[in-house]
Amino acid sequence: MRGVPACTSSSTRIPPSSGVNTPSTTACSPTLRERSPSLTAVPSRWRRACSDTATSGRAPGPDLLEALSSRAASGGFPVFFLGGREGVVDELADALRRRYPGLVVAGTATPPFGEWSDETSRDLVRQVKESGARLLWLGVSAPKQEIWARRWLDELDMPVLCVGAAFDFSAGRVRRAPVWMRRSGFEWVHRLATEPRRMWRRYLLGNPLFVADVIRWWRRPATDMCGE
After folding, report:
1. Whether pLDDT at 165 is above 80
2. Which domains does the chain have, with CATH numbers?
3. pLDDT confidence of residue 5
4. Taking CA 93 as the corner, what is the angle to CA 61 and CA 185, rounded to the nearest 5 degrees?
5. pTM of the prediction?
6. What's CA 19's distance to the chain center, in Å?
7. How confident is the prediction for the chain on average, in pLDDT?
């Protein structure tokens, strides 16, 4: 397993041709299902509809980032943080090193907003590989991060974990939803309430599309969804 994209409402905007693992695209590719099992920040009952493992729980990006940072610190596993707004990755690196002494941050980078050209992407890949990192954290908006990770996964030759806004949460720039909202599957409501201008389209339009996508995948055999 080298690429770990998230199965969220934004997955409805990822075309099957991208090769990214979503409810629809996973059904069309047993190879992707093996390489990139989905992790999700939506309610567990939604996730179970797009996973073969009904006993799996939630793995929100911020929780995953904290848990694996602790493991990386204890195992001497160097990491690289790519993405975020200006200054966020440096604040993130400092915050995680304070919480998890021994964490080796091999490097950080904040690319420009918008689409990254092949030239920019190759330069980012070079920076990551030359840093000596063995794990890349990618904190960019979805579905851009999943598509980029899939496109450059072979060149990077290391695990890539796409966690979106987790950088802002773990760096302390954005306050996360209360624990009860996270556990009940309504963390998205908190994000919508705190960032309505940025999040309304994702959640008010994306969530219904995501549910419809999951239902279609759940009801049809993989071969039917692939048009075979």
Report:
1. yes
2. 3-57+175-221 (no CATH), 61-171 (3.40.50.2300)
3. 47
4. 15
5. 0.70
6. 15
7. 76
